[in-house]
Amino acid sequence: MKPYVCGVDIGGTTVKLGLFTDAGELLEKWEIPTDTGDGGARILPDIARSITDKLAEKQITPEQVLGIGLGVPGPVSADSTVFRCVNLGWGTFNLRERMNELLPAIPHVAAGNDANVAALGELWQGGGKGSRSAVLITLGTGVGGGVVVDGKIIAGKRGGAGEIGHITVEPEETEPCACGKRGCLEQYASAQGIVRLARRMLAASDTPSALRAMDSFTAKDICDLARDGEQMALDIVDRCACYLGRAMSFVGCLIDPEVFILGGGMSRAGAVLTDAITRHYKEYVLFVAADTPIVTASLSNDAGIYGCAKMVLG
Known about the structure:
The mean pLDDT is 94. Helices cover 37% and strands 22% of the residues. The two termini are 17 Å apart. The protein is built from 10 helices and 12 strands. Helix 7 crosses helix 8. The protein is α/β, with parallel strands linked by helices and 314 residues long.
């Protein structure tokens, strides 16, 4: 019998690991630092060592482990080839082959982009539980996305599927996005993007706002003021939600998911943001997809390890 599965979510600062049963129960989770020195050469050996140590601690043999799922911050193809992970220092190589060399007793290895596996995790045991298709949108430092259809991650030919943050929503934009394009959703709907949007709107208006008295403010400050009913903050959130609703309508017309799931720090704004997004989404999307629910993620930082485990379990 192979009653155990390991889920590994590799981030630029820490690697989150989880030990699951084959029924999907999380038995234990832990973290190790991500060593990005020497082009990230020690990351996978560190993971293999940590898994080996944990199995020994639990008196579990490697032969009892069905497989290992890996989520990485970069594009990953269907055959587990990673195409450059800048934050890890990685170039192009096959993750399955490398892990098979390190842990030959656990030959089943699956890999995917971190946003995609988080979407799978939320669909499996989180905000989208009970559905078969979902689009996860993470609103954090950037805007990421993951697509799951019929319980399967849609990765695309080169692992680029789900990059909703780089849908062009403002063709008149003059400043470049980090990706090099102009007018990407990420420029208006990330935590940094909404602050940038707020500064523009404050400069173009004389509407009173507590934001004007702050030397610096954050996305949380904007959303807190909007929840308190301040008109300027509500206008800023509404503009951000308009861009989000427009981008999501493109996705809705193409994929028609059962549910949209919002994750990342900005999703904690709650109804003041989701209600506005829903209103604009309905305005732009084809009528057949207008009633798609927009919910918030519930697994928080554990979504990745859950999704990694689910990749193995199928």
